[in-house]
């Protein structure tokens, strides 16, 4: 571990603690000597990091806003990969925000990290994620945040067109398609709707509320329980129709 990464880890270990941590404990966590910890703390203190404490007692960082610290290469890889996924697989508004984040991250990359990033083995393809996949994403995100009931004009796998009044709860990416998870007012239950099969979205002029038995986390818990039960029966769910409405 290099010095800059060690200093970063040291700050993370110290900040937000209610009780002081000793140099010995810090040395064991970081795999270095106590002497190195003392030198690092002096270096951070001289740089303006508000570390409180003393040898033999322990150290912590006061409740003080710290400047951004440099990310490790692996952390930058994760951030950039996630931003590229957002850019490729979501709507144009989120994509623009992702591009802006990528530009800001790349602008401050040290030269050696920039070279590593240029040779990253990860590629995010936007194939199969065209305008039809993204058409209603921004509109539905807004409805979810505002808890607005919407009228969906929808076409199912058999090309039958229907209309549903639903309470939109979340957008879920299943590794190939985006779906809207919603509470259907007709069926009085959760339903999934593939974004690439939505023909139009209109506001129903109503608001809805969530509760313990009607929210995205509850839906996810039900899905997990369903597949846990299938696994317990020795089935992998392949014979269970899990396709969205």
UniProtKB/TrEMBL annotation:
Residues 138-202 form the WYL domain. Pfam families: HTH_11, WYL. InterPro entries: CBASS_pafABC_assoc_protein, HTH_11, WH-like_DNA-bd_sf, WH_DNA-bd_sf, WYL_dom. It comes from the Bacteria. Gene3D superfamilies: Winged helix-like DNA-binding domain superfamily/Winged helix DNA-binding domain. Residues 6-59 form the Helix-turn-helix type domain. This is DeoR faimly transcriptional regulator. It comes from Photobacterium galatheae.
């Amino acid at each position: 571990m290099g010095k800059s990464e060690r200093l970063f880890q040291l700050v993370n270990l110290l900040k937000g603690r209610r009780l002081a941590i000793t140099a010995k404990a810090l040395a064991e966590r970081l795999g270095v000597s106590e002497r190195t910890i003392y030198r690092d703390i002096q270096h951070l203190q001289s740089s303006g990091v508000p570390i409180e404490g003393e040898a033999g007692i322990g150290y912590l960082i006061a409740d003080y806003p710290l400047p951004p610290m440099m990310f490790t290469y692996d952390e930058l890889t994760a951030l950039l990969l996630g931003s590229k996924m957002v850019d490729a697989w979501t709507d144009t508004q989120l994509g623009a925000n992702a591009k802006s984040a990528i530009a800001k991250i790349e602008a401050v990359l040290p030269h050696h990290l920039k070279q590593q990033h240029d040779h990253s083995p990860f590629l995010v393809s936007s194939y199969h994620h065209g305008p039809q996949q993204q058409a209603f994403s921004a509109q539905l995100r807004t409805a979810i945040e505002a808890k607005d009931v919407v009228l969906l004009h929808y076409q199912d796998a058999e090309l039958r067109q229907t209309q549903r009044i639903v309470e939109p709860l979340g957008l879920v990416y299943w590794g190939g398609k985006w779906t809207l998870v919603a509470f259907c007012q007709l069926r009085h239950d959760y339903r999934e709707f593939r974004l690439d099969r939505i023909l139009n979205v209109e506001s129903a002029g109503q608001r809805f509320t969530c509760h313990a038995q009607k929210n995205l986390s509850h839906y996810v818990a039900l899905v997990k329980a369903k597949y846990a039960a299938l696994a317990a029966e020795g089935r992998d769910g392949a014979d269970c129709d899990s396709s969205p409405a």
